[in-house]
Automatic annotation (TrEMBL):
It comes from Zobellia uliginosa. It catalyses: UDP-alpha-D-glucose = UDP-alpha-D-galactose. Homodimer. The lineage of its organism: Bacteria, Pseudomonadati, Bacteroidota, Flavobacteriia, Flavobacteriales. Pathway: Carbohydrate metabolism; galactose metabolism. Its EC number is 5.1.3.2. PANTHER family: UDP-GLUCOSE 4-EPIMERASE. This is UDP-glucose 4-epimerase.
Length: 338
């Protein structure tokens, strides 16, 4: 039995490949390496002792997707990470996002629809909730008009999958809505490799800590929160990877109650930007150089997960603390800059 992981050389994808291999699955990775490197294959192999099969394919090329599924007839499950994911870039280049994130999803689903049975795990995001009315955020919270084309591709993607599962015998799917992934594998062989100036908080913090960046800008401290900075649910990437294996096994074992299910993946704990900075200072023993600046357009005040459904139905729970995740991020940053 083979499992296809698209975007398997990326941040969350590579950590998921490790967890799949550790559970005995044979993995085929598709990646176009536009936002990752084939060197990640060595990192994965250093951890598991097994080099995953690898095909360098741009999923926008429909004929290549068709050829892949002709070559690999024994794909039993697909975990689909491959997508563009920079919120700001999506505002400037919407068509790049709709083509890459939606077009490729349609090509994959067309191939899976030809099989008698197929199991599909979709990488989605809490961004679909926008600013939710109630904290913590449960899966029944309304999906709100997207704040960016990136967020819209996640909403549209979920609807495409839902509608396809409704009329495709044998196609079962789960959408996993991530909160804020962070950290790196404890082995130090794989981790986040942001290209250029990081958009996300944690890599910007660790790059500032290691001297690559001069100073962190904190986007606003006048929000209606305890310390005035925004609150998010920072989830350790290894916890997140394990949830993908759990979701895949749910489908492979036929435990799903619907042909399309959704789960929020977070720790259930909200942390403010200043709390994340203090976590870095605790684990690194260094003072972080930061300044408060204006708010960033599009930021929601607060987002953290109601983990009840993931805990009780999926049978998964985040195990690592913010400090443990931050320590792994800091160790990784020092290693790659070392
Ligand atoms: C977190 C907090 C910022 C950078 C995004 C996507 C989401 C998912 C995760 C893909 C916010 C503050 C940040 C900085 C700061 N991506 N911040 N200074 O925006 O919650 O989520 O990434 O799936 O879909 O929307 O994450 O890390 O950018 O920001 O003060 O230099 O840190 O204002 O409050 P976000 P983030």
């Amino acid at each position: 039995m083979k499992i296809l992981v698209t975007g398997g050389l990326g941040f969350i994808g590579s950590h998921t490949v490790v967890e799949l291999q550790d559970k005995g699955f044979e993995v085929v990775v598709i990646d176009d390496c536009s936002n990752s490197s084939e060197k990640v294959l060595e990192g994965i192999t250093s951890i598991t002792g097994k080099m995953p099969l690898f095909e360098k394919i741009d999923l926008k090329e429909k004929s290549k997707v068709e050829a892949f599924f002709k070559k690999y007839q024994d794909i039993e499950g697909v975990i689909h990470f491959a997508a563009s994911k920079a919120v700001g870039e999506s505002v400037e280049k919407p068509l790049l996002y709709y083509e890459n994130n939606i077009g490729t999803l349609v090509y994959l689903l067309k191939e899976l629809s030809k099989k008698n049975t197929s199991n599909f795990i979709f990488s989605s995001s809490c961004t679909v909730y926008g600013q939710a009315d109630k904290m913590p955020i449960s899966e029944t919270a309304p999906v709100k008009p997207a704040e960016s084309p990136y967020g819209n591709t996640k909403q549209i993607g979920e609807e495409i999958i839902r509608d396809t599962c409704a009329v495709t015998q044998g196609l079962n799917a789960i959408a996993l809505r991530y909160f804020n992934p962070m950290g790196a594998h404890p082995s130090g062989h794989i981790g986040e490799l942001p290209i250029g100036v990081p958009q996300n908080l944690v890599p910007f913090i660790t790059q500032t800590g290691v001297g690559l960046r001069e100073q962190l800008s904190v986007f606003g401290d006048d929000y209606p929160t305890e310390d005035g900075t925004c609150i998010r649910d920072y989830i350790y990437v290894v916890d997140l990877a394990k949830a993908h294996v759990q979701a895949l096994q749910r489908l492979l074992e036929g435990k799903n109650e619907e042909n399309y299910e959704v789960f929020n993946l977070g720790t259930g704990k909200g942390s403010s930007v200043l709390e994340v900075i203090h976590s870095f200072e605790r684990v690194s023993g260094k003072k972080l150089n930061y300044k408060i600046v204006d708010r960033r357009p599009g930021d929601v005040v607060s987002a953290y997960a109601d983990t009840k459904k993931a805990n009780e139905v999926l049978g998964w729970k985040a195990e690592y603390t913010l400090d443990e995740a931050m320590k792994s991020a800091w160790d990784w940053e020092q290693k790659i800059r070392g």
